[in-house]
Write a structure and sequence with these properties.
With 406 residues, the chain is mostly helical. 76% of the residues lie in helices and 0% in strands. It has helices spanning 24-45, 50-76, 82-101, 110-130, 137-160, 168-183, 203-232, 236-257, 259-270, 274-284, 286-305, 313-338, 343-354, 356-359, 364-403. The chain is built from 15 helices and no strands. The two termini are 38 Å apart.
Length: 406
Amino acid sequence: MTASRSPGRHLRRRGEGVEQPITTVELFFDLVYVFAVTQLSHLILDDLTVAAVGRAAFLLVIVWWAWIYTTWMANWFDPASPAVRAVLTGVMLVSLLMAAALPGAFGANGVLFAVSYVALQVGRNAAAALLLRRDQPLRDVFERLVGWSAASGVLWLAGAALPGDRRLLLWVPAVVLDLCAPLAGYWMPGRGHAVTTDWDIDGGHFTDRCQGFIIIALGESIVVTGATAADAGLDATVVLCLGIAFVETAALWWLYFGAVAERSRLVMSTCEDPGRLARDAYTYLHLPIVAGIIAAAVGDDLLIADPARALHGVGLAMVLGGPVLFLVGESLFRLRVTGAANAERLAVAAILVLLAPLGSRMSALALSASVAALLSGLALCELRTLARQTLFGQLRHLQPQQEGTP
């Protein structure tokens, strides 16, 4: 057994048998992102247009990137350290400013939004580098992060000076630069590329944190639909719609937190290169999963607001496209982690797509009930499969004992 080691006074202890629990500071930090996700869903609800969906999707990438990079840092650094706790508190403050500025990111609050995001990314990475000794391998990682976040930060700040949607002329290249940085190994002149084996993360902790963000997104769905139901008046129809919305949310929960969630935690904890897997399966492939949950929440809100109305355009896309995006994203995640695709989930996603022509002729209540039934049926099917696999495994375990019994 490998003895645990203490790599530095600000870093988490590493070693076999050393648990890395999620701390209260990390949970406190997540509260800001509950607010951020709510802001994104209301951006769509307040303006059911393709342009609004595009802006919300763009801003979701930025919100996710801010959260996931902080998750990477907290995986290495010990939140029990007062210095680390101070850094995370500062990151939380600028995250709150960024979240508050989301509705006006393409309007009056563009400068606040860009300054907050750049301060968050550059400030966190610079502070982390300063907390590390020069002989520590992670120092090189965070110096690279400072360089890349500063380069994109120039584009963010310059773009904020432009009016309205013209900011995208510089903000889109900034996002592309941010998204490509991990794939490029944070290349720097004279240093070359970093390798993912240098990112010595704790796989179990990283998995738990990303699962926590899924709970944030699902919880936001419950908050939004519950508030809309309360405002609409809890008559029999609204209560029925609220029940259907909850069933759909519960099905999404099961489809994510079923057997694969535990298996992915085991794989992340035991694989030889958890940094690469965390980059691919969580940093990138969790984004469509979160986007699908937010879109489904928007669809649930539209259901409760007017259950008798037939949905078209963006509204129809939220009701059907949200679950489709979730299922496709989760299937890609499963494929990357386990190496096995899930034909049943992709088949349900295809059925939801084929429902689109018929869905525009159905009431929101009938359409949402159909979606909830499909997702619940898929979850129950997987539950039965898991039960059979568990029973089969138990029988195989008992068989040698029975054969050896005189």
